[in-house]
Amino acid sequence: MLYVGLDVHVKHITICVLNKHGKLLQRCQLPCLDDVIKFLMNLQGRCEVCFEASTGYGIYFEALSKIASRVAVAHPGLLKLIFRSKQKNDRADAEKLAKLLFLDEVPTVHVPTADVRAWRELITFRGKLIQKRTRAKNGIRSLLRSVGCRVPKEFGLWTIRGMEWLKQKDLKQPMQNLKRNMLVEEIETLTRQTRLVETELARYSKENIAVQQLQSIPGIGLRTAEAFVAFVDDPHRFANSKKVGAYFGLIPIQDQSGSTNRLGHITREGCAEVRHLVTEAVWQGIRYSPTIKAYYERIHRQEKDRKKIAIVATSHYLVRVMWSMLKNGTLWKERSLAV
Questions:
Q1: Please, how many CA atoms are within 13 Å of residue 314, restricted to the half-sphere of its CB?
Q2: Helical H segments across 206-333, by residue range
Q3: Which residues contact 236 (CB under 8 A, 6 or more apart)?
Q4: In this structure, are residues 91 and 97 in contact, taking their beta carbons and an 8 Å threshold?
Q5: H or E stretch including 262?
Q6: Ordered mean pLDDT values, 10 residues apiece, the chain (339 residues)
Q7: Positive or negative: CA dihedral 263, 266, 269, 274
Q8: CA 108: distance to chain centroid?
Q9: Which of 180, 140, 182, 175 is nearest to 157 (CA)?
Q10: pTM for this structure?
Q11: Surface-to-core class of residue 206, CB atoms within 10 Å of its CB (0-12 exposed, 13-18 middle, 19+ buried)
């Protein structure tokens, strides 16, 4: 068995090959994936391949899986903890990956199918569209405040009537009118793009049983359910519910030594979009679910300073519950006391 480490970059790929005893056999640098495949096919004997997860890792995984006995995609964050070298270069990185593969110590990541990867990308893209639209709306609010203009109370600013009022409002200065027109045009464009994305997401999620399962939870809508299902993918890949909380970065940073145990902010690892959607869903869950409300109030303890802590803790609780529902194929059930 040969062990191959790949240090992948846009313009080239550095290769390191170890023999069955872990000794260096060959090094080279090739320009593209096709050349790497040809190189691996010409190796004498079976091989295992390891490379670090980055943009396009799914394409590499699928292509290399056809010719290699095993393909391990390494977690970039955990690799930094393993290799804290002051001398870093492509050749050294490829060799380190090959050695980890030889020792069977690669911290791997889950590689979803092409459909799920595209689903994840569109969910994340929608989140970025919403962020851009929010910035444009904040720009409009700032502009109106700068000219001392108030929106009439008869309608909301972002309703059809409100947008028509905004377009017709004369801000006196030509430059300010130009800025207003461009921001309004940006908001309308982003709103139209968001609707197209949401239509496609709804079409894809329509027949997904897992998405329908999670929508049985009060406060969990289609957007939150589909994002959670897409990024969890296979619930059985997590050993327990704590692993799911860590995957979405909802566990606190811990600094423990002897009798001292300090807990800091959450790690914020994993998908920020899912974390944001679940946190928003918690607010609705508190309103409509006695179980979620009881859990929140138990953490909150009617203390003003613990409000954010309680929201994050409830988000962590909700993520664990959602994972358990997917794993066991169950629907949401209200309880008198939250566990």
A1: 30
A2: 209-214, 222-232, 241-247, 272-288, 290-300, 307-328
A3: 327
A4: no
A5: strand 260-266
A6: 94 95 94 95 93 93 95 90 77 93 94 96 97 97 93 91 94 94 97 97 93 96 97 95 94 81 86 96 95 94 91 96 96 72
A7: positive
A8: 17
A9: 140
A10: 0.90
A11: exposed
